[in-house]
Amino acid sequence: MRRFTFLIGGLFAMILVAVCTGARQTPTPSALAPQEGDFVLRDFRFQSGETLPELRMHYYTFGKPVKDANGRTNNAVLILHGTGGSGRQFLSPIFANVLFGPGQLFDVTRYFVILPDNIGHGKSSKPSDGMHARFPQYDYDDMVRAQRELVEKGLGVNHARLIMGTSMGCMHSWVWGETYPDFMDALMPLACLPVQIAARNRVWRKMVIDGIREDPDWKNGDYSTEPPGALRIWADFLILAGGAPLVMQRNLPTRDAADKYLADTVKRITANADANDALYAVNASRNYDPSANLDKITAPVMFINSTDDFINPPELGIAEREIKKVKNGRFVLLPISDKTHGHGTHTDAAVWQQYLKELLDESQH
Protein backbone atom coordinates (compact mmCIF):
# COMPACT_ATOMS: atom_id res chain seq x y z
CA MET A 1 0.00 0.00 0.00
CA ARG A 2 1.42 3.31 -1.05
CA ARG A 3 1.07 6.29 1.24
CA PHE A 4 0.12 9.86 0.47
CA THR A 5 1.57 12.67 2.54
CA PHE A 6 -0.18 16.02 2.82
CA LEU A 7 0.17 19.10 4.94
CA ILE A 8 -2.28 20.13 7.58
CA GLY A 9 -2.00 23.23 9.68
CA GLY A 10 0.49 24.86 7.35
CA LEU A 11 0.01 28.22 9.06
CA PHE A 12 1.69 26.94 12.17
CA ALA A 13 3.87 24.02 11.31
CA MET A 14 4.32 21.36 8.73
CA ILE A 15 2.36 18.42 10.08
CA LEU A 16 2.79 15.49 7.74
CA VAL A 17 -0.18 13.14 7.94
CA ALA A 18 -0.15 9.76 6.18
CA VAL A 19 -3.37 8.43 4.61
CA CYS A 20 -3.96 5.86 1.91
CA THR A 21 -3.10 6.31 -1.81
CA GLY A 22 -0.73 8.68 -3.59
CA ALA A 23 3.04 8.67 -4.11
CA ARG A 24 5.74 7.58 -1.69
CA GLN A 25 8.01 10.31 -0.42
CA THR A 26 11.68 9.38 -0.10
CA PRO A 27 13.72 10.56 2.89
CA THR A 28 15.89 13.62 2.58
CA PRO A 29 19.31 12.41 1.32
CA SER A 30 22.02 12.25 3.95
CA ALA A 31 24.19 14.31 1.60
CA LEU A 32 21.82 17.17 2.39
CA ALA A 33 22.34 17.02 6.15
CA PRO A 34 22.53 20.64 7.34
CA GLN A 35 24.93 22.33 9.70
CA GLU A 36 23.17 23.31 12.92
CA GLY A 37 24.02 26.00 15.44
CA ASP A 38 22.99 28.76 17.83
CA PHE A 39 23.73 32.47 17.88
CA VAL A 40 23.07 34.48 21.04
CA LEU A 41 21.86 38.08 20.72
CA ARG A 42 22.88 40.07 23.79
CA ASP A 43 20.53 42.48 25.56
CA PHE A 44 17.86 42.19 22.89
CA ARG A 45 15.23 44.92 23.23
CA PHE A 46 11.72 44.12 22.03
CA GLN A 47 9.19 46.56 20.56
CA SER A 48 7.26 46.25 23.83
CA GLY A 49 10.21 47.75 25.72
CA GLU A 50 11.01 44.41 27.38
CA THR A 51 14.51 43.01 27.12
CA LEU A 52 16.27 39.66 27.31
CA PRO A 53 19.93 39.55 28.33
CA GLU A 54 20.36 36.59 25.98
CA LEU A 55 18.13 35.72 23.02
CA ARG A 56 19.10 32.41 21.42
CA MET A 57 18.56 32.06 17.68
CA HIS A 58 18.89 28.50 16.42
CA TYR A 59 19.52 27.83 12.74
CA TYR A 60 20.27 25.26 10.06
CA THR A 61 22.46 26.00 7.06
CA PHE A 62 23.54 24.33 3.84
CA GLY A 63 26.58 25.32 1.80
CA LYS A 64 29.00 28.17 2.34
CA PRO A 65 28.64 31.94 1.90
CA VAL A 66 30.42 33.50 -1.07
CA LYS A 67 31.32 37.17 -1.45
CA ASP A 68 31.95 39.09 -4.65
CA ALA A 69 34.89 41.40 -5.35
CA ASN A 70 33.16 44.17 -3.40
CA GLY A 71 32.73 42.01 -0.31
CA ARG A 72 28.98 41.53 -0.77
CA THR A 73 27.49 38.10 -0.14
CA ASN A 74 25.95 36.94 -3.40
CA ASN A 75 24.66 33.40 -2.77
CA ALA A 76 22.65 33.54 0.48
CA VAL A 77 19.05 32.33 0.54
CA LEU A 78 17.01 32.98 3.69
CA ILE A 79 13.92 30.78 4.09
CA LEU A 80 11.42 31.63 6.84
CA HIS A 81 8.95 29.21 8.43
CA GLY A 82 5.34 29.55 9.56
CA THR A 83 3.70 29.97 12.95
CA GLY A 84 4.46 27.03 15.23
CA GLY A 85 6.99 25.61 12.79
CA SER A 86 10.77 25.69 12.61
CA GLY A 87 13.57 25.67 10.10
CA ARG A 88 13.44 21.88 10.14
CA GLN A 89 10.18 21.87 8.21
CA PHE A 90 12.16 22.72 5.06
CA LEU A 91 14.11 19.48 5.40
CA SER A 92 10.97 17.65 4.33
CA PRO A 93 11.35 15.70 1.06
CA ILE A 94 8.64 17.75 -0.66
CA PHE A 95 10.82 20.82 -0.18
CA ALA A 96 14.46 19.77 0.22
CA ASN A 97 14.41 17.00 -2.39
CA VAL A 98 12.94 19.39 -4.93
CA LEU A 99 15.16 22.42 -4.33
CA PHE A 100 18.44 21.58 -2.57
CA GLY A 101 19.95 18.81 -4.70
CA PRO A 102 22.53 18.96 -7.53
CA GLY A 103 21.32 21.11 -10.40
CA GLN A 104 18.20 22.19 -8.51
CA LEU A 105 17.20 25.80 -7.92
CA PHE A 106 18.87 26.04 -4.50
CA ASP A 107 21.68 23.59 -5.23
CA VAL A 108 23.56 23.67 -1.92
CA THR A 109 26.92 23.35 -3.65
CA ARG A 110 26.22 26.85 -5.04
CA TYR A 111 23.93 28.51 -2.51
CA PHE A 112 24.26 29.27 1.19
CA VAL A 113 20.80 28.31 2.48
CA ILE A 114 19.77 29.63 5.91
CA LEU A 115 16.82 28.12 7.81
CA PRO A 116 16.34 29.90 11.15
CA ASP A 117 14.11 28.90 14.05
CA ASN A 118 12.40 32.18 14.79
CA ILE A 119 11.81 33.69 18.23
CA GLY A 120 9.36 31.52 20.15
CA HIS A 121 9.89 28.52 17.87
CA GLY A 122 11.97 25.40 17.49
CA LYS A 123 15.21 25.51 19.46
CA SER A 124 15.31 29.30 19.69
CA SER A 125 14.36 31.15 22.89
CA LYS A 126 10.68 30.70 23.75
CA PRO A 127 8.26 30.86 26.68
CA SER A 128 8.47 27.14 27.42
CA ASP A 129 12.19 27.45 28.17
CA GLY A 130 11.18 28.56 31.66
CA MET A 131 9.86 32.12 31.62
CA HIS A 132 6.33 31.00 30.67
CA ALA A 133 4.01 34.03 30.34
CA ARG A 134 6.78 36.33 31.57
CA PHE A 135 8.58 35.90 28.25
CA PRO A 136 8.68 39.19 26.29
CA GLN A 137 5.64 39.79 24.08
CA TYR A 138 7.42 39.55 20.74
CA ASP A 139 5.90 40.60 17.42
CA TYR A 140 6.84 40.23 13.76
CA ASP A 141 9.11 43.29 13.77
CA ASP A 142 11.08 41.74 16.63
CA MET A 143 11.32 38.45 14.77
CA VAL A 144 12.60 40.05 11.57
CA ARG A 145 15.16 42.15 13.44
CA ALA A 146 16.44 39.02 15.21
CA GLN A 147 16.67 37.26 11.84
CA ARG A 148 18.78 40.07 10.48
CA GLU A 149 21.12 40.04 13.49
CA LEU A 150 21.52 36.28 13.12
CA VAL A 151 22.25 36.56 9.40
CA GLU A 152 24.64 39.52 9.62
CA LYS A 153 26.37 39.13 12.97
CA GLY A 154 26.06 35.39 13.44
CA LEU A 155 26.61 34.12 9.90
CA GLY A 156 28.50 37.01 8.30
CA VAL A 157 25.99 37.54 5.49
CA ASN A 158 25.54 41.16 4.40
CA HIS A 159 23.22 40.57 1.44
CA ALA A 160 20.67 37.96 0.36
CA ARG A 161 20.20 36.59 -3.12
CA LEU A 162 16.62 35.78 -2.10
CA ILE A 163 14.37 35.93 0.94
CA MET A 164 11.33 33.68 0.88
CA GLY A 165 8.87 32.59 3.51
CA THR A 166 5.77 30.52 4.07
CA SER A 167 2.68 31.66 5.99
CA MET A 168 4.08 33.66 8.94
CA GLY A 169 7.39 33.61 7.05
CA CYS A 170 5.51 35.00 4.07
CA MET A 171 4.45 37.95 6.24
CA HIS A 172 8.02 38.30 7.49
CA SER A 173 9.12 38.57 3.85
CA TRP A 174 6.99 41.68 3.41
CA VAL A 175 8.43 43.18 6.59
CA TRP A 176 11.96 42.46 5.34
CA GLY A 177 11.25 44.10 1.98
CA GLU A 178 9.95 47.29 3.57
CA THR A 179 12.40 47.58 6.45
CA TYR A 180 15.60 46.56 4.67
CA PRO A 181 14.86 47.17 0.98
CA ASP A 182 18.50 47.03 -0.14
CA PHE A 183 19.31 43.78 1.63
CA MET A 184 17.93 41.34 -0.96
CA ASP A 185 17.87 40.79 -4.72
CA ALA A 186 14.40 39.24 -4.65
CA LEU A 187 11.48 38.30 -2.41
CA MET A 188 9.11 35.33 -2.63
CA PRO A 189 6.21 35.44 -0.13
CA LEU A 190 4.09 32.26 -0.09
CA ALA A 191 0.62 31.97 1.48
CA CYS A 192 -0.29 35.20 3.22
CA LEU A 193 -1.68 38.68 2.59
CA PRO A 194 0.22 41.98 2.99
CA VAL A 195 -2.46 43.65 5.10
CA GLN A 196 -3.54 43.82 8.72
CA ILE A 197 -4.90 40.51 10.01
CA ALA A 198 -8.61 41.17 10.42
CA ALA A 199 -12.02 39.64 9.64
CA ARG A 200 -12.11 35.82 9.72
CA ASN A 201 -8.35 35.51 9.91
CA ARG A 202 -8.26 37.56 13.11
CA VAL A 203 -11.46 35.99 14.48
CA TRP A 204 -10.16 32.45 14.48
CA ARG A 205 -6.78 33.54 15.84
CA LYS A 206 -8.55 35.40 18.64
CA MET A 207 -10.56 32.24 19.35
CA VAL A 208 -7.27 30.38 19.90
CA ILE A 209 -5.85 33.17 22.07
CA ASP A 210 -9.00 33.42 24.20
CA GLY A 211 -9.40 29.64 24.37
CA ILE A 212 -5.92 29.26 25.83
CA ARG A 213 -6.22 32.16 28.26
CA GLU A 214 -9.67 31.14 29.48
CA ASP A 215 -8.72 27.53 30.21
CA PRO A 216 -8.59 27.45 34.05
CA ASP A 217 -5.72 24.95 33.81
CA TRP A 218 -3.64 27.57 31.99
CA LYS A 219 -3.22 29.39 35.34
CA ASN A 220 -2.09 32.67 33.79
CA GLY A 221 0.68 30.78 32.04
CA ASP A 222 2.20 29.29 35.20
CA TYR A 223 0.91 25.73 34.73
CA SER A 224 3.10 22.81 35.75
CA THR A 225 1.36 20.41 33.35
CA GLU A 226 0.02 21.34 29.93
CA PRO A 227 -3.62 22.57 30.02
CA PRO A 228 -5.56 20.03 27.93
CA GLY A 229 -8.38 22.35 26.89
CA ALA A 230 -5.94 24.97 25.65
CA LEU A 231 -4.00 22.43 23.62
CA ARG A 232 -7.19 20.98 22.17
CA ILE A 233 -8.40 24.32 20.82
CA TRP A 234 -4.93 24.88 19.35
CA ALA A 235 -5.03 21.53 17.59
CA ASP A 236 -8.61 21.95 16.39
CA PHE A 237 -7.87 25.23 14.68
CA LEU A 238 -4.65 23.94 13.14
CA ILE A 239 -6.66 21.21 11.48
CA LEU A 240 -9.49 23.48 10.39
CA ALA A 241 -7.34 26.32 9.08
CA GLY A 242 -4.84 24.09 7.33
CA GLY A 243 -7.28 21.68 5.73
CA ALA A 244 -8.36 21.61 2.09
CA PRO A 245 -11.88 20.27 1.36
CA LEU A 246 -11.06 18.32 -1.81
CA VAL A 247 -8.00 16.63 -0.33
CA MET A 248 -9.80 15.71 2.88
CA GLN A 249 -12.84 14.43 1.00
CA ARG A 250 -10.64 12.28 -1.22
CA ASN A 251 -8.57 10.85 1.63
CA LEU A 252 -11.20 10.73 4.38
CA PRO A 253 -14.33 9.65 2.46
CA THR A 254 -16.20 8.06 5.39
CA ARG A 255 -17.30 9.20 8.83
CA ASP A 256 -15.08 6.65 10.53
CA ALA A 257 -12.03 7.68 8.50
CA ALA A 258 -12.63 11.34 9.39
CA ASP A 259 -13.12 10.55 13.07
CA LYS A 260 -9.97 8.47 13.23
CA TYR A 261 -7.96 11.12 11.42
CA LEU A 262 -9.17 13.80 13.85
CA ALA A 263 -8.34 11.73 16.92
CA ASP A 264 -4.92 10.71 15.61
CA THR A 265 -4.00 14.21 14.49
CA VAL A 266 -5.07 15.91 17.71
CA LYS A 267 -3.02 13.37 19.66
CA ARG A 268 0.01 14.00 17.45
CA ILE A 269 -0.21 17.79 17.72
CA THR A 270 -0.86 18.00 21.44
CA ALA A 271 1.87 15.48 22.31
CA ASN A 272 4.59 18.04 21.60
CA ALA A 273 2.79 21.36 21.98
CA ASP A 274 3.12 23.99 24.69
CA ALA A 275 0.20 26.30 25.43
CA ASN A 276 2.30 29.40 26.09
CA ASP A 277 4.39 28.87 22.97
CA ALA A 278 1.18 28.52 20.93
CA LEU A 279 -0.40 31.60 22.49
CA TYR A 280 2.65 33.78 21.89
CA ALA A 281 3.08 32.51 18.34
CA VAL A 282 -0.49 33.37 17.33
CA ASN A 283 -0.48 36.68 19.19
CA ALA A 284 2.74 37.82 17.48
CA SER A 285 0.68 38.80 14.41
CA ARG A 286 -1.39 41.33 16.38
CA ASN A 287 0.16 44.49 14.88
CA TYR A 288 1.28 43.19 11.49
CA ASP A 289 0.25 45.51 8.64
CA PRO A 290 2.71 46.20 5.81
CA SER A 291 0.08 47.65 3.45
CA ALA A 292 1.02 51.33 3.87
CA ASN A 293 4.68 50.81 2.95
CA LEU A 294 4.58 48.31 0.11
CA ASP A 295 5.83 51.00 -2.24
CA LYS A 296 9.13 51.00 -0.32
CA ILE A 297 9.95 47.51 -1.61
CA THR A 298 12.45 47.76 -4.46
CA ALA A 299 13.38 44.10 -5.03
CA PRO A 300 11.41 42.00 -7.53
CA VAL A 301 8.59 40.14 -5.75
CA MET A 302 6.96 36.85 -6.75
CA PHE A 303 3.91 36.54 -4.46
CA ILE A 304 2.05 33.20 -4.51
CA ASN A 305 -1.17 31.99 -2.89
CA SER A 306 -3.36 28.98 -3.63
CA THR A 307 -7.07 29.11 -4.38
CA ASP A 308 -7.98 26.48 -1.76
CA ASP A 309 -6.31 28.35 1.14
CA PHE A 310 -8.76 28.75 4.05
CA ILE A 311 -6.57 31.39 5.68
CA ASN A 312 -6.11 33.58 2.61
CA PRO A 313 -9.33 33.17 0.58
CA PRO A 314 -8.96 34.47 -2.98
CA GLU A 315 -12.46 35.90 -3.21
CA LEU A 316 -11.33 38.81 -1.02
CA GLY A 317 -9.28 40.21 -3.90
CA ILE A 318 -6.75 41.63 -1.45
CA ALA A 319 -3.64 40.16 -3.05
CA GLU A 320 -4.51 41.51 -6.50
CA ARG A 321 -5.18 44.96 -5.03
CA GLU A 322 -2.09 45.21 -2.84
CA ILE A 323 0.45 43.88 -5.35
CA LYS A 324 -0.23 46.98 -7.45
CA LYS A 325 1.58 49.01 -4.77
CA VAL A 326 4.79 47.03 -5.28
CA LYS A 327 7.08 48.56 -7.90
CA ASN A 328 8.24 45.26 -9.34
CA GLY A 329 5.73 42.75 -8.02
CA ARG A 330 3.82 39.86 -9.51
CA PHE A 331 1.01 37.87 -7.92
CA VAL A 332 0.24 34.27 -8.87
CA LEU A 333 -2.91 32.50 -7.68
CA LEU A 334 -2.48 28.75 -8.01
CA PRO A 335 -5.74 27.09 -9.14
CA ILE A 336 -7.14 24.14 -7.24
CA SER A 337 -5.78 20.91 -8.67
CA ASP A 338 -4.76 17.44 -7.59
CA LYS A 339 -1.41 18.99 -6.65
CA THR A 340 -2.64 21.70 -4.28
CA HIS A 341 -3.72 20.96 -0.72
CA GLY A 342 -4.84 24.15 0.91
CA HIS A 343 -2.62 26.43 2.94
CA GLY A 344 0.15 23.84 3.14
CA THR A 345 0.75 24.08 -0.61
CA HIS A 346 3.32 26.70 0.38
CA THR A 347 5.84 23.98 1.32
CA ASP A 348 5.20 21.68 -1.67
CA ALA A 349 7.92 23.09 -3.89
CA ALA A 350 7.06 21.07 -7.00
CA VAL A 351 3.79 23.01 -7.29
CA TRP A 352 5.39 26.45 -7.58
CA GLN A 353 9.07 25.94 -8.42
CA GLN A 354 8.55 27.22 -11.98
CA TYR A 355 7.73 30.65 -10.54
CA LEU A 356 10.78 30.53 -8.29
CA LYS A 357 12.92 29.88 -11.37
CA GLU A 358 11.34 32.86 -13.14
CA LEU A 359 12.09 35.08 -10.14
CA LEU A 360 15.71 33.94 -9.92
CA ASP A 361 16.19 34.46 -13.64
CA GLU A 362 14.70 37.95 -13.71
CA SER A 363 16.60 39.12 -10.63
CA GLN A 364 19.97 37.79 -11.78
CA HIS A 365 22.68 40.46 -11.86
How would you describe this structure to a colleague?
The protein is α/β, with parallel strands linked by helices and 365 residues long. The protein is built from ten helices and ten strands. The chain has helices at 93-99, 140-154, 168-179, 199-213, 228-242, 245-251, 255-271, 275-283, 318-322, 349-362, and strands spanning 3-8, 15-20, 35-45, 51-62, 76-80, 112-116, 162-166, 187-190, 301-306, 329-334. It has an eight-stranded mixed sheet, with helices on both faces. A two-stranded antiparallel ribbon has the order 1-2. α2 crosses α3 and α5 (228-242) crosses α7 (255-271). Mean pLDDT is 91; it is low at 1-30.
Distance between the termini: 48 Å
Number of extended strands: 10
The percent range for strand residues is 15-25%
Total helices: the number is: 10
| Category by helix and strand content | alpha/beta
- Please tell me the overall pLDDT: 91
SSE order, one letter for each helix or strand: EEEEEHEHEHEHHHHHEHEH
Strand order of the largest sheet: 3-4-6-5-7-8-9-10
List unreliable stretches of 5+ residues.
1-30
Question: What gyration radius follows from the Cα positions, in whole Å?
Answer: 20 Å
**What characteristic shape results from the CA principal axes?**
globular
Give a short account of the largest sheet. 8 strands, mixed
Query: What percent of residues adopt helix (DSSP H or I)?
Result: 25-40%
